[in-house]
Amino acid sequence: MNPSILPARIASLPKAELHLHLEGSIQPATVCALTARHNINFTEAEVRGRYSYRDFAGFIAAFKWVTSFLREPHDYGLIARDLCEHLLTQGVVYAEITLSVGVMLLRKQQPEKNFEAILRATEPFEKQGLRLNWIFDAARQFGPEAALEVVNAAKRCATKSVVAFGIGGDELSIDTGEFRSVYREAAKLGLHLLMHAGEVGGPEKIREAVEILGVERIGHGIAAAFDPALMDLLVDRRIPLEICPQSNIRTGALAKQLGKDDAQIREHPLPQLWRHGIPITLSTDDPAMFHTTLLQEYENAAQMGLSETELAQMAEASFQYAFLSEDDKLALKERRGS
Asked: Is position 199 annotated as part of the catalytic site?
């Protein structure tokens, strides 16, 4: 990429990131350090080989592989510290980080202990100007009962820093309506509601998430571009799409939506969705696994033809649609000097 594509003013803006998986942020060097703790040795080149795939199934297999080495609370502390250090290099001052609590439970771990280690590891970064909140995430393919256990884990953690409940994983696996009662319980706890939808699934998956589950933001949602009425609905209800362009390329999600074998970043529907009036925030999804950074995602948006003004508006939207009180948003705005 030509670094001059991204205007210097945009690169220097303080940013928020709202769609970021902790477990997908583990850099190859950190994987090596992690596996060494468990007497398993990999080279960084071998890890990079694992982080290479052309479709969503390949990505899921790699995600399962790398998370299999997260076995103790201090493992989570290690990767959380590394992510915070990385976020500071990107000018991020606020992030909502997704934790795969459903995977922790599947592996018979105690999410409360893992989360306690994460909070200890990340607390010092507050003094460096990085504020974090957390999203507890269930895997759709594990089913509604497992998803409810994720909600219960959030209840046991009993902290204001867990701001939302979401569901990721295979969006084609189980009907959306099966999770209605789970989202009802999450809402009773005061958690904001999220769902990955319209990534590899069609526009109907987004509509179901909005109309059946009452979600407040959509993870990905690129399929909305194929349904003008759905785009209007998202505009009317001010429901943001958390767009992760490089993820959509690396998993083959964009190619699938376009009905092609391959897709290029310039074919991404982000400009169409944005100019229709849908709120959009830019994120990295699983930055290590997709070989990207937040600055690179802004550069991707610039390659798609977004103007400097539009990129600045998108950066501002990431704060506007964060799960923060208006007072907290104002405090962050003041810290950013804007």
From this structure: yes
